[in-house]
From TrEMBL:
Sequence ranges assigned to domain Transglycosylase SLT in this UniProt record: 162-228
InterPro entries xref list: Lysozyme-like_dom_sf, Transglycosylase_SLT_dom_1
Regions crossing the membrane: 12-34
Keywords, sorted A to Z: Membrane, Transmembrane, Transmembrane helix
Record-linked SUPFAM superfamilies: Lysozyme-like
Annotated spans, Disordered: 88-131
Signal peptide limits: none
Superkingdom of origin: Bacteria
Biased composition, class Basic and acidic residues, residue ranges: 91-123
Name the UniProt record assigns to this protein: Transglycosylase SLT domain-containing protein
Gene3D superfamilies documented for this protein: 1.10.530.10
């Protein structure tokens, strides 16, 4: 501390050791002031380390303090730069990790969709490659449940028949003339309105094969397959 204008003998070890440049400068100043040759850097360091403010000429004291403060400021600036660099590197690492995860998630989603589409197309292809179409069956005046079920088996992939049958069991119990008095739904698959089945054939009211064709197309288009329709039916009691 300064007491009046008197300077106490405050040690300058911290100043001298803080910077080799500052130590050299202080040693040179002390030597010149005493009328001696400048000391070597090593000797100057030792002298400065043991010196006090009072041992240094008044004109050199400000230089010592300025050099030390400059070194401290440089050290603090270096530490701040190092911390900022470390923070920037960590932020970059996190951003890169998030980007990589986003790309992976997108790739996984695209892969899953592609696989689902492939399964759906395979099912549809199997259905389309069935050996019989509605027009392949002889038209009769009436059909038994067994005859209707036999037609259905021949018009779709074997692994889809049970799902189709489950829906028809619930909707009409395989009665191709079943009519819902309240809604007007009609036929094996209870199309609403029943006239929609005309897209599969003009005889939609009397030919179960026509109704099966329409119902199979509906299930494939809307749910991917009869089994897809059955899964939806189980969850909602309609399809």
């Amino acid at each position: 501390m300064l007491e009046g204008k008197r300077v106490s003998r405050i040690s300058v070890r911290g100043f001298a050791v803080a910077s080799a440049t500052a130590v050299t400068t202080v040693g040179a100043v002390v030597g010149v002031a005493a009328g001696n040759e400048p000391a070597s850097v090593g000797n100057t360091e030792a002298t400065a380390a043991d010196a006090t403010i009072a041992d240094i000429p008044a004109g050199a004291q400000a230089q010592v303090q300025t050099a030390s403060l400059t070194q401290q400021a440089d050290d603090q600036s270096t530490q701040a730069d190092t911390a900022a660099l470390k923070s920037a590197q960590e932020s970059a690492r996190k951003a890169a990790a998030e980007t990589a995860q986003s790309k992976k998630d997108a790739a996984d989603e695209a892969k899953a969709k592609k696989e689902a589409d492939a399964r759906k197309e395979k099912t549809l292809a199997a259905s389309r490659s069935a050996t019989r179409d509605a027009g392949d069956f002889a038209v009769k005046g009436s059909y038994t449940v067994a005859e209707t079920q036999a037609m259905a088996r021949q018009m779709m992939a074997s692994d889809q028949f049970q799902c189709f049958s489950n829906i028809v069991d619930h909707e009409s119990t395989w009665n191709y003339k079943a009519t819902n008095a309240s809604s007007g739904a009609y036929g094996l698959v209870q199309a609403l309105p029943g006239s929609k089945m005309a897209s599969a054939g003009a005889d939609w009211q009397t030919n179960p094969a026509t109704q099966i064709k329409w119902g199979l197309n509906y299930m494939n288009d809307r749910y991917g397959s009869p089994c897809g329709a059955w899964s939806f039916w189980q969850a909602n009691s309609w399809y």
